[in-house]
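User: I'm putting together a teaching handout on how multi-component assemblies are represented. Below are the sequence lines for each component of a complex, exactly as they appear in our records. Could you produce the 3D structure of the whole assembly as structure tokens, so the students can see both representations side by side? Please keep the chain order the same as the input.
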Amino acid sequence: MAGQDIEKLVKLVSKLPSLGTRSARRIVLNLLKKRENLFLPLIEAMQNVANNVKTCEICGNYDTCSPCSICASELRENGTICVVQDVADLWAMERVSFFKGKYHVLGGILSALDGVTPEDLNIEPLLERIGKENVKEVILALPATVDGQITAHYLVSRLKDFEVKVSTLAQGIPMGAELDYMDEGTLQLALNSRKAL
Amino acid sequence: MAGQDIEKLVKLVSKLPSLGTRSARRIVLNLLKKRENLFLPLIEAMQNVANNVKTCEICGNYDTCSPCSICASELRENGTICVVQDVADLWAMERVSFFKGKYHVLGGILSALDGVTPEDLNIEPLLERIGKENVKEVILALPATVDGQITAHYLVSRLKDFEVKVSTLAQGIPMGAELDYMDEGTLQLALNSRKAL
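Assistant: Of course. Below is the structure of the complete assembly, with chains in the same order as your input.
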């Protein structure tokens, strides 16, 4: 009895990641309560993003311009490309603001279970960029999972023909972690890759 | 480096209940990925709700019309009003589709901590309705908390002058519950209010 418009909105909101019907209802009621301060500004912000944001034709990042502000920036080094699974990972890297090179968004990783093959990923454009942009190093910043490793291996095999250094993010114990709480796989890996002091 | 439009949207989404910055980012990326199937329909649904949904002048429910479809319905009994804290609770009651009377949304409950006084609540219009709609019974469906009980007591004192039956939802052990898992307050209450078979 909430009116068809409301029910439709609740249904759409509940399709968003990490939300269910109950939280969708709470969100819609909250929006109706804060109409001026939240609901209308949110609609406007969504329209702006929907109208203005595009996928960067070079790296696959989202931005209001294409090439995106990272690809177009003269402050970023051209010789290094950091390969990430997703734009979310690109954002995570950018929040550190330590990496000064450019990015390439694969749009996923290989997965036998989900039926993701190399053709589904943004791999060919990466290979094209290597010659075109005079790339010296490719950093694979892929998830530390089995699928992530398989994707990394595949990319290494494809990059063999190019004169380019390929590296991957270091694996080990995260900063601030207690050994007691680490899983055995990580401990073994950290021990194997121990560094001389 | 996500573009100002995106950052603004992430910030607004993170203000929604039960969401933080991380889930807001995931939601925005998800919207950008599903532009046609989710993002654009969601914007349209939000606009429809923002444009069409109003607060019912009689009971405080949200609907596209005022009086709302419940207040305007001839199938609902006029003699009984169920008083709820919030529209969310009204929806919860309607999902059971057992109650056939009408509603009154208080818009909150009395709270010394949050500084909610009777003047902040939708109480005077409730008293007006009792004479106007020839109400025979008021059912208080308020939260089973201390503040809920204080509000119920206050409403009972205000309703004393009217010739109207006042009742409250039964408290006890919820259906399907194991005694072992119930808190002591509920058990004591259920024992005190035991029913003869």
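A couple of points students might notice: The helical segments of chain B are 4-13, 21-33, 35-52, 69-72, 87-96, 124-132, 146-159, 184-192. Residues 35-52 of chain B form the longest helix (18 residues).
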